[in-house]
Amino acid sequence: MRKLRRLPLRLVKPKDDEEDFFHRPGDMPGTIIIDADAPAPIIFLIDYNKTDVVHKQLNTPEECAPYLDKESVTWVDVQGLGSADILERLAKVFDLHPLVLEDVVNVPERPKIEDYDDQLVIISRMVVPKERVCGFYSEQVSLVLGKYYLLTVQEEPEHDCLEGVRSRIDKGKGIIRSSGADYLAYTLLDAIIDGFFPVLELYGDHIEELEEEVIVNPTPKTLQKIYKIKRELLQLRRAIWPQRDAINSLIREGNDLISDEVRIYLRDCYDHAVQVMDMVETYRELASGLMDVYLSAVSNRMNEVMKFLTVMSSIFIPLTFVAGIYGMNFDTEKSPWNMPELQWYWGYPLCLAVMGTIAGGLIFVFWQRGWFENFSKINQK
Amino acid sequence: MRKLRRLPLRLVKPKDDEEDFFHRPGDMPGTIIIDADAPAPIIFLIDYNKTDVVHKQLNTPEECAPYLDKESVTWVDVQGLGSADILERLAKVFDLHPLVLEDVVNVPERPKIEDYDDQLVIISRMVVPKERVCGFYSEQVSLVLGKYYLLTVQEEPEHDCLEGVRSRIDKGKGIIRSSGADYLAYTLLDAIIDGFFPVLELYGDHIEELEEEVIVNPTPKTLQKIYKIKRELLQLRRAIWPQRDAINSLIREGNDLISDEVRIYLRDCYDHAVQVMDMVETYRELASGLMDVYLSAVSNRMNEVMKFLTVMSSIFIPLTFVAGIYGMNFDTEKSPWNMPELQWYWGYPLCLAVMGTIAGGLIFVFWQRGWFENFSKINQK
Amino acid sequence: MRKLRRLPLRLVKPKDDEEDFFHRPGDMPGTIIIDADAPAPIIFLIDYNKTDVVHKQLNTPEECAPYLDKESVTWVDVQGLGSADILERLAKVFDLHPLVLEDVVNVPERPKIEDYDDQLVIISRMVVPKERVCGFYSEQVSLVLGKYYLLTVQEEPEHDCLEGVRSRIDKGKGIIRSSGADYLAYTLLDAIIDGFFPVLELYGDHIEELEEEVIVNPTPKTLQKIYKIKRELLQLRRAIWPQRDAINSLIREGNDLISDEVRIYLRDCYDHAVQVMDMVETYRELASGLMDVYLSAVSNRMNEVMKFLTVMSSIFIPLTFVAGIYGMNFDTEKSPWNMPELQWYWGYPLCLAVMGTIAGGLIFVFWQRGWFENFSKINQK
Amino acid sequence: MRKLRRLPLRLVKPKDDEEDFFHRPGDMPGTIIIDADAPAPIIFLIDYNKTDVVHKQLNTPEECAPYLDKESVTWVDVQGLGSADILERLAKVFDLHPLVLEDVVNVPERPKIEDYDDQLVIISRMVVPKERVCGFYSEQVSLVLGKYYLLTVQEEPEHDCLEGVRSRIDKGKGIIRSSGADYLAYTLLDAIIDGFFPVLELYGDHIEELEEEVIVNPTPKTLQKIYKIKRELLQLRRAIWPQRDAINSLIREGNDLISDEVRIYLRDCYDHAVQVMDMVETYRELASGLMDVYLSAVSNRMNEVMKFLTVMSSIFIPLTFVAGIYGMNFDTEKSPWNMPELQWYWGYPLCLAVMGTIAGGLIFVFWQRGWFENFSKINQK
Amino acid sequence: MRKLRRLPLRLVKPKDDEEDFFHRPGDMPGTIIIDADAPAPIIFLIDYNKTDVVHKQLNTPEECAPYLDKESVTWVDVQGLGSADILERLAKVFDLHPLVLEDVVNVPERPKIEDYDDQLVIISRMVVPKERVCGFYSEQVSLVLGKYYLLTVQEEPEHDCLEGVRSRIDKGKGIIRSSGADYLAYTLLDAIIDGFFPVLELYGDHIEELEEEVIVNPTPKTLQKIYKIKRELLQLRRAIWPQRDAINSLIREGNDLISDEVRIYLRDCYDHAVQVMDMVETYRELASGLMDVYLSAVSNRMNEVMKFLTVMSSIFIPLTFVAGIYGMNFDTEKSPWNMPELQWYWGYPLCLAVMGTIAGGLIFVFWQRGWFENFSKINQK
């Protein structure tokens, strides 16, 4: 049951069951809470322009300060939320509003876009499909976009779907090297949204398997699987819905940090978010439909079981009664009316014939009503 | 199960199960993915004005270049997405934005309208009814409208519902020959939307058949059929809903490429899209209602089975008990109280009479409660 | 099943099952399709002003031309859609846009309002209650309002709820004779909307009957009736919803052909449309509730049947077992331990007493649990 | 069933089943329909200013004419709709638009606000809780607000929740005596909205009772009660929803007859309407939940019944079989293999021991699976 | 049942069952109703600026008058609604509109924001988790914000989640001491909204427990628990929904009393409200899903019970029949055809062999159909 348990909590609280990780009511705004299990932050820096790319792993947040005001695009990627000290120093270097730091650190936050004077903060949620089982890892990615830099903060260093972007920067594919930090932000957002498709693919396949299972061999396990799918799709919906809204408001309301060129690309990104949402909703409806089919299939099975019992009982109960009759001990000598059949020459064969006729008649009636039809097809394991 | 399996995937990924056909997260925007199974593109060109019509099948995309700037209307119809090279050359000839090419090639894309400076891109979805079975082929049709040309790209060369438009151009029926490319675009959109009606017709008929089946003879097959209908209507809804929105935004926001005259026609097209959506929703509600009726019918059947068992058991169990009594071996000689009935002159006939009375009484009770009523009507196959 | 079959199709396609009556994809806009079964059009003309009323049945559409430009109000009422020729000549006389003719003739069209330069086209749907059974006839009524004339086109000559309007014109009741064509259009619309009330009345009564039936004597027939109601209410909703929207847009957006005076009256008409919709929705919820009640009632019945079986079996099975014991043939002479009860003086009476005690105890247990309570009340036919 | 029948009809048609009370399609707008059963109108007049209050019961509508233009506030309260003559004379005195008279008289009308030039017409619906049973009386109250007067028309003289307002006028409590007719209108509206709370209170209590009943002792009666609640809440929703909208539009759009001061009070009234709606919706969801719980409880009960039957049958059927074996009449003398057990010294005791072991084993298995657990708790009446 | 009963009423009426605590229809606006059980109000005053903090418990409302116009921030916190006199004097000191006093005192009021000229009134609802059980205390907190003061009125002195704010004021943490009354109001609102998270945490954990229970061991208790969760989530939704709307309207419409700085913080508070709502909705859907799973699990169980009965009956009924045959008393001496088997040398062993074959065959059939599979897994307690 472990896997089932963890899932709905991922959007609610981090891993440790003992402590409270949500903001305690009455806490100062900007209070950050560090989960003892959280991995220590690792800081990567990529600084590039049309001609050069610098890759670095930084030891202290302060090391990235000199890059921030340069015209080259600086991408600072922090992975892990396990140190209040480092995160606060980072906030200082980037001059983050206390509320921004809170949003970035106190995961899970609802995906959203916040517009500060010279920074645009995008809280988003990234999903990465699990291998071999149908499920996904989910983590928060916060983007802080400045004029010449982009700061991204991920919950943990594993399960990342941004590798493609890094390689495009390295290889200088497309226009990424000649574009600004806003294009980089778009690229990452696009990668995050597109990261939902492989996850949905898994669910699509899983639903198909269940469609067969629910009709061919519905077991209580099937029920659990359907419920699990419904629950995880609910999570996906909660992750994608606000991201769509956020991207939409970014396109509509605009922002000085986002160029018109990039806005066109964001429209494409928005379309994909809508498509993800569409698929999530469709899968949810299919899962609900499966639940109905499951219930009906269970009813059908019970029907078949009942029919079997009824056929067996209905045939043998009258026969047993007839046998019971001739097992009675009425004294045949006291009266010619006391069970004279027992003395007949053809008594026993006649009795068997009567039983055979009763059984045959009942079987005919059942057959005529089609009760035997589904026995072979349905109840087979 | 093949047919069932394919359907929900058609809007998700192309035919091959082994490869991923969705945009990989982190891919460059504009990256196009060619499915190995996709048919090679065939390019048709129709160029017409009031007086002349030219029909041509082109070998290379470049051949259509000379037609594009002429004032005559040029319709380039590409069928099949199986060659990256040809599609990229096509994009060059038509000067398509990389995102447009991606939308056109990386099917399935959600239907939408994108407004580029001098091109209007309409992604739409065409459905064609299957023959003999209740189902449909679904493919993406992308329209790129320029001042004097219209480029359409279809997923595959089969299952096309645009033949009527081609014949109207040939025969010069109506005002199509004297109108511009925008009217042609409208005509195609209208044909695509109207193409939903014959498909819905199929489902309407199928639902009617099921309405009878579900009451007269509900089997597990019926359940599968209802689920299949619900699922395919879900697909139709996903196809028509965004098309309606797209057409509506086209009417409302306007565009230089669309004349006022054509906008009036688009209103009509919009009305039809709404009508399609209405019908889809109605059919979905009917299908949901059918599921309820199915469940009730199964319950009713079980009820009848139970009644039958109860009637049979309730009648014979007391009789068997009576027979059991007189089958006991108490020694009648040891005491006048030990089963004196066995020695009576009328013992056996009396015993049978008692049994008959019990059976008759029970049958009367059952008959009075109306338990026999539905036997003949319902359980009949 | 005929009646059931016809209903959902009325909004989908006309009567003939063999031909397709929907617009074929690719057809020219304005193409009209004539159903072979459609009754031939009959043309009535009423021309009136404050002082005079002229009634006429016309033979050709052209006969109404002289009336159209006169300041008196001219109401041309066409009933039946069975002749392409007449309808096209009519369109010529009234100078209809091809799309209008298509909307008017190719029924069923979704109710809507179209604003052409000097004509206002209202497509609406009229329902007329059936006599004696719960159901309704539904037909499309199209209104084309010009400055001095109103053209109405009905699908068929029967089942009309406009008689009251005609008589008001004749008798000069109210302000109709001194008002313009816009007031006449309002009057007809109002009559059409008010025509929904008697139909809903039928359904209200029918639902009440079913409420009793579903609890007192639920049969599979009941289920069919509930489903039929749900389905027909769905049709009514599809008919009234767009009419409400259409009237609303007419009030809000205004039109030169509609005077402010009449707009106040339209608000009243709009309120009635909303009231109809309210009632339809309420009835739909009641019908859904009935379905739940039905399912529960069937479950309850099965429960009672099961209880009966359980009571019968549980009482007699132990008794039969006891009788079986003393029917065994152990040789009482071989051992004093072999069924000595058979030799007892009070053996048989004691055995019967034991049986009576067992039966009494079980009956007491069942009675205490209240299992006998509902037998008399529920299962009664 | 009487009570059940009446309720849904109250919003549809008045008491008499034989006649049609809805507006006949084609009737002249403004046609009023008098129900033969409707009580004759009684006319009360209260005229007050800061210093004086006049109470009067009027015989003719014309008697109130002199008060209408005086600066003192005049409240004319008409109770009963049983006379076309009086109502039409009233309309003349107050100079009502024919549509207003229709709305006021042809109950039930949907609650709404109509803005005429110098009159504001508010159609609202008043509910009054029934005594001792859970239910309510519902009647239409129409308010016509003029500069110095307020006309209210109630369906019937009984069941009024406006007594508190009258007493406030008499006693001069609060600011009512020094305020205008608009404040009086607000006060009445507020009383009408607040009148929903005691009704909802009844339903809240009733739902609580049912929550216990549905778990402790679900019977078919319970089902009927739940359905009845759902149905009556549907009515309440239909009554309160449009009133909220009407009050909201009054606040937003404003009107010369309503002072800014009173508008603040209306906001409070609006909040209460929203609160009523909230409660109605909550109760509806609770009632739907109850239906689910009921269904589950019935299933649970059937489960217990089945378990009982299964336990009884499973224990005794094998025992009876064993007894049957030794009731066979194989001739023990013909062969030492023919039922030698019958001749054993310990044959019978051994046989009983075997039976006891079988029974004990089965009981152990059932006990281990927890089948005995719920017997005592659940099935108790 | 006590706990269950109390919950839905908390938002409807206070503790006493005998009296009516809602506003009686017709009551004067501003009428306040004091619950006899309500605790007497205790008044706390905190007055602070950058340098000083004054804590005081006041005896009379008038004591706080001197603080109100000073530039230091004055927070007057009233806990308990048990005295009309004190509350009215308080209203006088703070110059409250009668409607404000009514809203504050006549709990429960729907959360909302009212904008008076120089006061901003915020009605909100605070929830505090219960200890050890899954549940919450809910009370109304009203905030009246003036230029230099904030008045808060709580329903009762216990269960407060504002302690964190008080300690921040005392310790001078963050910017609270250097900010105005608007920041204090925001801080309290934020604490109230954040107070929903620990409550939701409880429900999240409880749902997880139920997910296991519903599959492993569904009992009628489980059903009650699911219903209780659904009902309490409904309450939470009713509490958070209007608060979100209120905060949103505060951000959008603005108010002179709220500085731009604080408005940024309110956006954060709004985001948390949305997150709470999201979680409530997700939990509600999970709870609904659980209900479905429960129903299916009960059906599955019944299925297993039925299978057990069927297996037992089907195996032994034919055997008992065979035993019955050879228990018949046909006279073997009258005819060689009368049960000659009884005289055979191997008669009895053969008979037993036949029975064994029948039983074995049936067991094989059941095993093949997988009927034995789920016995061990499912029915275990």
UniProtKB/TrEMBL annotation, chains A, B, C, D, E:
<keyword id="KW-0406">Ion transport</keyword>
<dbReference type="InterPro" id="IPR045863">
    <property type="entry name" value="CorA_TM1_TM2"/>
</dbReference>
<keyword id="KW-1133">Transmembrane helix</keyword>
<keyword id="KW-1003">Cell membrane</keyword>
<feature type="transmembrane region" description="Helical">
    <location>
        <begin position="346"/>
        <end position="367"/>
    </location>
</feature>
<feature type="transmembrane region" description="Helical">
    <location>
        <begin position="308"/>
        <end position="326"/>
    </location>
</feature>
<keyword id="KW-0813">Transport</keyword>
<keyword id="KW-0472">Membrane</keyword>
<comment type="function">
    <text>Mediates influx of magnesium ions.</text>
</comment>
<keyword id="KW-0812">Transmembrane</keyword>
<keyword id="KW-0460">Magnesium</keyword>
<dbReference type="InterPro" id="IPR045861">
    <property type="entry name" value="CorA_cytoplasmic_dom"/>
</dbReference>
<protein>
    <recommendedName>
        <fullName>Magnesium transport protein CorA</fullName>
    </recommendedName>
</protein>
<comment type="similarity">
    <text>Belongs to the CorA metal ion transporter (MIT) (TC 1.A.35) family.</text>
</comment>
<dbReference type="InterPro" id="IPR004488">
    <property type="entry name" value="Mg/Co-transport_prot_CorA"/>
</dbReference>
<dbReference type="InterPro" id="IPR002523">
    <property type="entry name" value="MgTranspt_CorA/ZnTranspt_ZntB"/>
</dbReference>
<dbReference type="Pfam" id="PF01544">
    <property type="entry name" value="CorA"/>
</dbReference>
